[in-house]
Write a structure and sequence with these properties.
The complex is a heterodimer of chains A (224) and B (234).
Chain A lengths: L2 H19 L1 H21 L3 H29 L6 H8 L4 H29 L8 H27 L4 H28 L7 H25 L3
Chain B lengths: L9 E10 L2 E11 L4 E5 L6 H8 L7 E6 L2 E2 L9 E4 L11 H11 L5 H11 L15 H13 L5 E5 L7 H16 L3 E5 L12 E6 L2 E5 L6 H5 L6
Parallel strand pairs in B: 3-8, 3-9, 6-7, 7-8
Antiparallel strand pairs in B: 1-2, 1-4, 4-5, 9-10
Helix pairs in contact in B: 2-3
Classes of the chains: A mainly alpha (224), B alpha/beta (234).
Chain lengths: 224, 234
């Protein structure tokens, strides 16, 4: 069976288990909602100020939510040693990563898209005219977070102090993604919106580089 | 069994496995013939689980190799052609028995997966409850699903790590009957055991591990009964 077929089957499993338990989505949506609402009350900004600092706050909230979401990604495969069953069943272990990072990207993207209208209202930032470009930035940023986070989740799941290890490893590695995503978002939310190809290109390159590294070395991350 | 294997079903060649400075396995060399039902005995920490996981290619040996037929465990080895039943059930609590078996059947490229899943659900006596989440099952029912998962692709070699742990007598009897059928049909079985049961009585050969090394092997003339430390009949 091809890599993509295996990954598709496993992606279906990820969606089924998540939509049955709603553990990850519920946690992250509630968390991001709380952060966005709290920020809006704390800063009480004008529209112009919002456009300046809100993209940073928004991506910070997404980043914290992602670290919450990514933690159980491989941890819950350890409960019944299902990771071993998967390793015994797939011909290419990258299929396991591919399915998990696709699911994480989707869940993160759903969280972001649900938060977008709330953010727009609370921070008084119109987004209608740049919605498509924003979705592209969110997708590339979320993919970068998920690729890196899924790999680190596999590492931290086998370590002691795993709850602490993932954020410690994740936050420095994701700093470039955070900067690029924030800059690209800020440019789109500007009174004179701009599609910053440089930052968006940077995000795409980051995603490709880390995806390739995961494809090449991911197998070793799953070993006991 | 579907796979055709020439020579021994499994050959362990000078297997070492170290965790830091600690040897989990030390120069283990064994040949398991086709159709043998081998019981691994030994105290906790003697290396039984590590040996089984090395055989399943879940753990990479520090040195040495494991051969199935004419293939050798190397850096780019595919999954081992085995069925593996571990300490844990290795199935998803959030999925039903049918969904679990269907998932692994598709990953393992089982031919006519729907029919095979239905057949196994019938064999493990869970066809009527196939739509219930595994988390609602008893320990014995979960273990049945675990065995069914390992048998989905009709493996030529079955590895079991203390399969009777936590099972009641009825479940142990069912497991023993299933393993006996497999043994009689030519499946090679390598299992670690603790204590006497109907399952240990199936062993045709026994090997005792001590501190990661083979201490006794009934294949070399030692008494099977004395290795297992209780009554066992081929």
């Amino acid at each position: 069976m091809s890599l993509l077929s295996n990954a598709t089957v496993l992606f279906g499993k990820e969606l089924r288990t998540e939509f049955r338990s709603r553990e990850l989505l519920t946690t992250t949506v509630v968390f991001v909602l709380m952060v966005v609402v709290l920020f809006s009350f704390t800063f009480d900004p004008s529209s112009l100020e919002s456009r300046r600092f809100a993209p940073g706050l928004l991506w910070l909230a997404f980043l914290f939510a992602a670290s919450l979401m990514l933690q159980p990604c491989f941890l819950r495969e350890q409960t019944n040693d299902t990771l071993s069953a998967l390793r015994l069943s797939v011909s290419d272990p990258f299929a396991i990563f591919l399915a998990k990072l696709a699911a994480n990207t989707l869940f993160l993207l759903i969280t972001e898209l649900l938060m977008l209208p709330v953010f727009s209202i609370l921070f008084n930032v119109p987004i209608g005219s740049v919605l498509a470009s924003l979705v592209l930035v969110f997708f590339l940023g979320s993919l970068g977070v998920s690729v890196t986070g899924t790999a680190l989740s596999a590492i931290s799941a086998q370590a002691r102090m795993r709850e602490l290890l993932l954020p410690i490893l994740l936050l420095p590695l994701l700093t470039p993604v955070l900067i690029a995503s924030t800059e690209a978002t800020a440019a789109l939310l500007d009174p004179a919106p701009a599609f910053r190809k440089d930052w968006i290109g940077f995000l795409a390159v980051f995603d490709i580089v880390f995806l390739t590294a995961l494809w090449l070395f991911g197998e070793y991350l799953l070993e006991e | 069994m579907s796979a055709s294997i020439a020579g021994p079903a499994i050959r362990f060649d000078k297997i070492d496995k170290r965790y830091g400075g600690l040897y989990a396995l030390r120069r283990v060399s064994l040949e398991i013939a086709r159709g043998e039902c081998v019981a691994l005995a030994g105290r906790n920490g003697s290396g039984k689980t590590t040996l089984l996981r090395v055989a399943a290619r879940l753990v990479r040996p520090t040195s040495g190799s494991v051969t199935f037929s004419d293939e050798v465990v190397g850096d780019d080895s595919p999954p081992a052609p085995v069925g593996f039943v571990g300490h844990a059930t290795m199935v998803y609590d959030e999925l039903t028995a049918e969904e679990n078996l269907w998932l692994f059947a598709r990953l393992l490229e089982v031919r006519d997966a729907a029919a095979r899943v239905a057949e196994l659900l019938g064999e493990i006596g869970l066809y009527e409850r196939r739509g219930s989440l595994v988390r609602t099952y008893s320990r014995g029912m979960r273990q049945r699903v675990a065995v069914a998962r390992a048998l989905l692709h009709r493996p030529a070699v079955l590895l079991l790590d203390e399969p009777a742990t936590g099972l009641d007598s009825a479940s142990v009897a069912w497991l023993a009957s299933t393993l006996q059928q497999l043994r009689d049909s030519g499946c090679t079985i390598l299992m670690s055991l603790h204590g006497e049961s109907e399952i240990s009585a199936l062993a045709t050969r026994a090997i005792r591990l001590e501190a990661g090394a083979v201490a006794a092997d009934s294949g070399d003339g030692a008494s099977l009964r004395s290795i297992l430390g209780f009554n066992a009949t081929p």
